[in-house]
Design a protein that fits this description.
Elements lengths: L2 H14 L4 H8 L3 H9 L6 H11 L3 H5 L4
Helix pairs in contact: 2-3
């Protein structure tokens, strides 16, 4: 999946779940700068962080990454 597409999905799910970047970053234990760069597609995503994002937002990893089983 392209970084831009993944960035859009992370941002969309964050907003859908009602979190600000600040709130989600705090829940994940990362800085707002890290989350912001991830949502802009300028940071390569660590799969462990992506799994944490999915868990925190209450979605599956596959749903977040749009991986079809």
């Amino acid at each position: 999946m392209e970084n831009d597409q993944l960035a859009q999905r992370v941002r969309a799910f964050r907003k859908l779940k009602g979190h600000t970047q600040q709130e989600l970053a705090k829940l994940l234990g990362v800085s707002v700068a890290v989350l912001g760069s991830l949502e802009r597609g300028t940071r390569k995503v660590d799969p462990k962080l992506l799994a944490s994002i999915a868990e925190t937002l209450g979605v599956s990893y596959e749903e977040l990454t749009d991986i079809k089983s």
